[in-house]
Write a structure and sequence with these properties.
This protein is mainly alpha-helical. Among the domains are: 194 residues, Rossmann fold; 54 residues, no CATH class; 206 residues, Serine Threonine Protein Phosphatase 5, Tetratricopeptide repeat (Alpha Horseshoe), CATH 1.25.40; 60 residues, Arc Repressor Mutant, subunit A (Orthogonal Bundle). Strand 3, helix 7 and strand 4 form a beta-alpha-beta unit.
């Protein structure tokens, strides 16, 4: 406890007014030389050093001490950070480690006028007379009027000899030509970012405070406090008072009464009413800028006030080089937000609503939606989210959409047609077709009420898209729903990609392959930016058509593009990506990529289990593709099981013409493979034996085909037959089994 009690005791001063006119002839008040050329005896160091003692149980920060010690060529060191960052403690550790003598001026209230400052500095420097290489520390410089400090330092700097330094430590940045000093490499600086504790330092501090927790808990506290030493100690006190300290780090925050009291004492008490109002109301924002605060807080001149607050004793950091926007420390922001919500929750919601509109007008829809949710405005949230939903779902961010929806009750969602439609599509993309239908019906009912908003066309279109996905009324109705939705939407709407996919699927299931191909081509082009998940599924459907046409090179290219889009947008675990993996498995198996095909087949199977009860046409088509992959992998039993499942689903989708063609071809192939899958190597034909001789080589299937003067597809078919007859699942295994059977010699 002694460690952190000392840490919190530092930097307690307050700025006071001084008479800058009294700062005259300061140079005359100071010694003519801060440092002489005579060495100092080690025994004199303790007598002249005025640094606070660095106790053994204090947290050591060797990296920062080394940074200061190694910068002795810089005549000026500036350590600036808000209260509680351990500035004085760090300098005390430096003084204890550095062999140079330290003269320490710990400024207090009433010492900020020019004569008194000159007297203090003169006394400290006088103690160093006769030393070679020394350090003069002016601590709590925020207590001095900026001009007084500036004139004093500018008078002292020319007198600093080689190997000596002046150190300024305070809560506000000194009004000095720091830019020029940086460029001249005459300045070393440490700020709040450098003084923030690492996980290792935090663990040491917490142990010293009596809290011994797992390192994962330490890391959580470092994230919550952003490494602020004083806040870490307060977290230790808070957790020690709980029955289960290890269970509370994630809940520790600005609402904790210890944090709130510290923030009030150290930061808020000294603020002007205007500054406190700006920060309290601005706490609803994750970043503060002049134009944004003016709009949301309905005031003027926020940029000047923010700049002044950033220069004061506040953990308010600039976010850009031009200092146009700022960020409050997370704990301070949480404390202010809690105060605002307790004192005026209605105002907090109005502020969030204004912020939402401001961000939406500037195209920052992520923040706009966040603020609409915080405002508990279901209608505004629904309107914003529905317009951006294809982007969120297309990028694999349905979990974020669900988190926003979870902020509202079912009654609130039902009261907003757009938000109900968002819920429908969110459940649809997750494979929950029944919930998607439920919320689609709710959206339709709300949209049909008197006084529906002007976005009813978009809602009507969204409802039609949900109905088309379900597809239980047949392909003709599915095509009509997709066409109706497309007609209601603007041509540039991101939802148009879904209309293309669903319209193309309806044409494909009806047997109109040419029309389906046109829809899928357009959907892939439209969705590549606005709806990547839909683009990937359009490419998968095109690959399936190429497989039917036995255009394997085209199918391979399309399947690879679909898989690449899926992986690039983090959609591999999205249930509706099952179709992409089914096509990839079918193509990979045909191409002899056994390992890759089996991997894709397993992934597709896992995703299909999450789609239990989903649109029957989708499940049937995907399983037929998996059956083709299984047959190419010589697993006829699995292929038959997939086809049986697909048949049951197909019966639930009326007037699907293409299913009969697919099933006839698949069952015929399964029967043929079952009849010809003779056991043992003796069943190999002459053509298969010729191909077998090339398998131990490095030749690709294409190169083998060139040497045998046959097509690549013929070689692939013969190789797969060899695999089956030799009970092998890969090229290397086929070679090994053939060698054991004496078919390849020694």
């Amino acid at each position: 406890m002694q460690t952190v009690a000392y840490l919190l005791a530092v930097d307690r001063g307050r700025e006071q007014a001084v008479n800058v006119a009294k700062l005259t002839n300061l140079r005359d008040r100071l010694p003519t030389k801060v440092v002489s050329e005579q060495p100092v005896a080690p025994s004199q160091r303790t007598a002249i050093g005025q640094a606070p003692a660095f106790a053994p149980d204090l947290v050591r920060r060797p990296a920062l001490v080394s940074r200061l010690a190694e910068a002795r060529a810089c005549p000026l060191a500036v350590v600036t950070a808000p209260a509680g960052y351990g500035k004085t403690t760090l300098l005390a550790e430096w003084a204890a480690e550095d062999m140079r003598p330290f003269a320490w001026v710990a400024l207090e209230r009433g010492q900020g006028d020019a004569p008194r400052l000159a007297q203090l500095i003169a006394g400290a420097v006088g103690a160093l007379r006769g030393s070679h290489g020394s350090v003069l520390v002016l601590d709590n410089t925020h207590l001095i009027r900026p001009r007084v400090l500036r004139d004093a330092v500018e008078a002292l700097l020319p007198e600093v000899g080689e190997g000596s330094q002046i150190v300024l430590s305070g809560r506000t940045e000194p009004m000095l030509p720091l830019g020029r000093l940086r460029a001249q490499r005459r300045l070393v600086e440490l700020g709040a970012r450098e003084l923030s504790m690492s996980s290792g330092e935090a663990a040491a501090l917490l142990r010293a405070a009596g809290l011994d927790v797992e390192f994962e808990t330490v890391q959580t506290l470092v994230r919550r406090t952003e490494g602020w030493p004083a806040a870490l100690y307060l977290a230790a006190l808070s957790l020690l008072a709980r029955t289960d300290p290890a269970g509370g780090p994630a809940s520790f925050g600005g609402e904790d009464h210890l944090v709130a009291e510290y923030v009030q004492d150290e930061f808020l008490a000294g603020l002007s009413p205007q500054g406190r109002t700006l920060l309290t109301q601005g706490s609803v924002l994750d970043r503060l800028s002049g134009p944004l605060c003016d709009e949301v807080l309905q005031r003027a001149g926020s940029d000047q006030l923010l700049a002044a607050l950033a220069r004061s004793n506040l953990p308010l950091a600039p976010l850009d080089s031009g200092h146009e926007s700022y960020r409050l420390h997370g704990l301070l922001r949480e404390t202010l937000q809690a105060d605002l919500c307790r004192s005026d929750p209605q105002l907090a919601r109005r502020l969030h609503r204004r912020a939402s509109v401001w961000y939406a007008d500037r195209g920052d829809f992520d923040r706009a939606i966040e603020h609409a949710v915080e405002a508990s405005d279901a209608k505004l949230t629904g309107e914003l989210l529905l317009a951006q939903l294809p982007r969120y779902l297309g990028d694999g961010r349905n979990a974020r959409v669900r988190s926003w929806l979870d902020s509202f009750t079912a009654e609130h969602i039902a009261g907003s047609g757009p938000l109900a439609l968002v819920a429908a599509h969110s459940h649809l993309i997750a494979g929950s077709i029944d919930l998607a239908q439920h919320w689609g019906r709710v959206a339709a009912a709300e949209n049909g009420r008197a006084g529906a908003r002007c976005n009813s066309r978009a809602v009507t279109a969204g409802i039609a898209i949900v109905q088309a996905w379900v597809g239980r009324s047949g392909t003709a109705v599915m095509a009509d729903d997709a066409a109706r939705a497309s007609a209601l939407l603007p041509d540039q709407s991101p939802w148009q990609a879904s209309c293309c996919f669903l319209g193309g699927t309806a044409e494909l299931l009806s047997g109109n392959r040419a029309a389906a191909r046109r829809h899928f081509d357009e959907g892939a082009d439209r969705g590549v930016i606005a709806a990547p998940n839909i683009a990937a599924m359009c490419l998968a459907q095109l690959a399936g058509i190429a497989i039917d046409d036995e255009q394997w090179e085209t199918a391979e290219d399309l399947a690879e593009r679909a898989l690449r889009e899926t992986e690039r947008h983090h959609l591999s675990d999205a249930p509706l990506s099952a179709l992409v993996f089914a096509v990839s498995a079918a193509v990979g198996a045909h191409e002899g990529l056994i390992v890759e095909a089996k991997r894709d087949l397993r992934q597709c199977g896992d995703l299909l289990r999450e789609l239990d009860g989903f649109a029957p046409w989708y499940g049937a088509e995907t399983r037929i593709l998996l059956a083709r992959a299984a047959m190419a992998l010589a697993d006829v039993q699995d292929a038959r099981a997939r086809l049986a499942e697909a048949s049951r689903l197909a019966r639930r989708t009326p007037d699907v013409v293409i299913f009969r063609q697919w099933f006839d071809a698949a069952w015929d192939e399964a029967d043929t493979r079952a009849e010809t899958a003779l056991v043992g190597p003796s069943s190999l034909t002459t053509a298969e034996l010729r191909v077998l001789r090339f398998l131990p080589t490095h030749y690709s299937f294409r190169e083998i085909a060139q040497r045998l003067h046959v097509s690549s597809n013929t070689v692939k078919t013969q190789v797969h037959s060899v695999y089956r007859k030799l009970d092998a699942s890969s090229r290397s295994e086929a070679v090994a089994n053939a060698s054991r059977a004496g078919l390849l010699g020694t």
